[in-house]
Amino acid sequence: MADIIHLLPDAIANQIAAGEVVQRPASVVKELMENSVDAGAKRIQVIIKEAGRSLIQVVDDGSGMSETDARMSLERHATSKIRKADDLFTLRTMGFRGEALASIAAVSQFEMKTRQADKELGTLLVVEGSEVRRQEPTAAEKGTSIAVKNLFYNIPARRNFLKSNPVEMRHIVDDFQRIALAHPELSFSLVHGDELLYDLEPSKLAQRIVGLFGKNYQQQLAPCSEETDLMSVTGYIGKPESAKRTRGEQFIFVNERFIRNNYLNHAVAGAYENLLPEGTFPFYVLFITIDPKHIDVNVHPTKTEIKFDDERAVYAVVRAAVRQALGAHNLSPTLDYTTDINLMTKVSQTQALSREQYLDEQLGSGLQRSNLQNWEKLFEEERPAQSALFGQAELAASERTSMVPVPNRVPVFQLPSGHLVRPAKNGVMIIHPVAAHERVLYESFLRKMKDRSGSTLQSLFPQTITLGTADFTLVMEMEREIKALGFEFEAFGKNTLVVTGMPAEATGKNEKELFEGLLEQFKHNQATLTVPLQDNLARSLARRAAVKMGQALSSEEMESLVERLLASHNPNYSPDGSTTFFIFETSKIETHFR
Ligand code: ADP
Ligand code: MG
Q1: Which of helix, strand or coil describes residue 222?
Q2: What's the 246 CA to ligand 1 centre distance in angstroms?
């Protein structure tokens, strides 16, 4: 019997390989763009027609190819990037398999123009289904231009398998974004039909992110960087309040190659811990740099899978990097205590004196002076108790910004009327809890809007609020400020908002009531006061979020409230001028007894 095994003709072998490399138009965009990056291009233009069905063209100003190389580049396993198996472990280029061009040319009408800088003429190659139709010298710009027309024209089954144009275009944009993010130092453009979708100048990473995702990302980014012997992590993470309900804007790159790795996504998500509302996903762009010998990218032809030799170590470093970034920017309520204390020490030294003077004045000069000097030690030993009125985040934030000596605990009592009573050197201090709380909240909200540090309490059940058109417009105009206060909300259809989180200080309030109350109060103030917008917002929210008269408070809440009142800029009055406390002097008490 005759032998029956034979080698497949190249055209068919390439078509089979193409099944793996070229799944859809976006795969072509990715392979061609990566080749341009590898070729040292500074400027890469991508031109798409009909979501890549009729045309995918990538034009670069990179090295170009000689006539022989141009021809060779279309052969399977033809690559300039590795020579021997060992090279796989020192890889610094995107490509290395030498399959992409051969595969693409097998399933399209393919045209390449390429010229090296030192040559006068370039080369034109026209290939159809792996068959070279034309090869000739041609005038060409320096670099390479590859046009892929009618992808899958010769494999109708694959062509029919393509999704709608919007879906295919989404995939193209995804791949474009990944490569543009990985190379902010290069310029990129993307044109679809006659629409210029992106035109990106060389820039820093932060600008590139803004260029790709929009201006509102500017305020939302916290830099992230961590370096260990094994690897480094750099990039940006989105502040928790910018988290989206859809997964997707999450990018991890390893040695500039975009990768998918759920394990590492989990490391990032874990670092955010309870900072994110259920079902929301943070934005991040993280670059891991690691010696190629610790990774294996040769797992899948499309190369977005990756293996690390010590995946757990990588996980730990990524997590630590993100935690650090969250802490360093005061985004996390569970701040690292050691980094925090330094911050407080600096601020407190400048403020301790005035605070001391203030206490002297208000409460009598004998107040445990020595304790004032020991406040730092005291503070280290005794973290303020968690309070329902003032969450840990709130305490931490107030301590950072106006850290003052914490004298020995002075007990505070609540009268049946709701008023608070506290011993003072020269008498009894009587405090109006509502006015006092309003003062404290007002200053805290002002500060938060200033440094956009509002801490958010995630809602268990997001609530929708429908407003009149004017109110809705007003809210959207103040979106940034309201969010800086700690509210979390999104526009949700016409004149409707979905509120997913509220300021941590407002524990116990209903978010819908609070939000609507804020708006009501804001409008009321607008009609009666002439104060700047931020001031009005802080006042309005303080009014609505403050405790109610007669509300029972715990000892910690009362002590914390009084401490914070005395530490505020203007402790004597609420923002609208009501008295917050007075001292019933010992001498007056005495008159009642004789
Ligand atoms: P790989 O990128 O894995 O090497 P490809 O099939 O994508 O394989 O490309 C084959 C070769 O063609 C590359 O190794 C490179 O030498 C050359 N090449 C491809 N695209 C370009 C380009 N835009 N500019 C210069 N050379 C290119
Ligand atoms: Mg390649």
Answers
A1: strand
A2: 35
Better pLDDT: 18 or 525 = 525
Q: Which residues line ligand 1 (CB under 6 A)?
A: 31, 35-36, 39, 60, 62-65, 73, 78-81, 95-102, 144
Interval 349-387: pLDDT, tens: 333 333 334 333 333 333 333 333 333 332 333 333 333
**pTM (2 d.p.):** 0.58
Tell me how far the alpha carbon of residue 14 is from its chain's centroid.
42
pLDDT for 302 equals: 61
Full set of structural domains in the chain with CATH:
10-202 (3.30.565.10), 208-328 (3.30.230.10), 384-594 (3.30.1370.100)
Angle at 481 between CA 478 and CA 483, to 5 degrees: 105
DSSP string, 9-62: PHHHHHHHHHHHH-SSHHHHHHHHHHHHHHTT-SEEEEEEEGGGTSEEEEEE-S
Ligand nearest to the CA of 77: 1
161 Cα to the center of ligand 1, angstroms: 28
Best mean pLDDT range from 70-79, 115-124, 250-259, 407-416: 115-124
Q: What DSSP letter does each residue of 374-425 carry, written as one string?
A: THHHHHHH-PPPP-SSS-HHHHHHHHHHT----PSP---EE-TTS-EEEEET
Neighbouring C-beta atoms of residue 464, cutoff 10 Å: 12
Q: How far is the CA of 262 from the centre of ligand 2 (A)?
A: 25
Supply angle C-alpha 170, 171, 175, rounded to 5.
115
Residue 323 · residue 270 · CB < 8 Å: no
**Is pLDDT above 70 for 4?**
yes
pLDDT at residue 401 tops 60: no
**Ordered DSSP codes for 261-276:** -HHHHHHHHHHHGGGS
Closest ligand (CA of 78): 1
Structure confidence at residue 285 (pLDDT) = 97
Identify the sign of the CA torsion 366, 370, 373, 376: negative
Q: 549 by DSSP, 3-state: which?
A: coil
Average pLDDT, the chain: 81
Contact 318, 286 (CB under 8 A): yes
Neighbours of 562 (CB within 10 A): 22
Give the length of the chain. 594
Q: Which residues lie closer than 8 Å to 501 by C-beta, 6 or more apart?
A: 241, 277, 456, 457, 458, 459, 486, 487, 488, 489, 511
The DSSP annotation for 427-456 comes to EEEEE-HHHHHHHHHHHHHHHHHHHT---E
For residue 158, give the nearest of 9, 10, 16, 302 by alpha carbon. 16
Residue 322: φ, ψ to 5° = -70, -40
* Phi and psi, residue 51, nearest 5°: 55, 25
Q: Is residue 112 very low, low, confident or very high in pLDDT (cuts 50, 70, 90)?
A: very high
* 7-57 residue pLDDT tens: 777 777 777 777 778 889 999 999 999 999 999 999 999 999 999 999 999
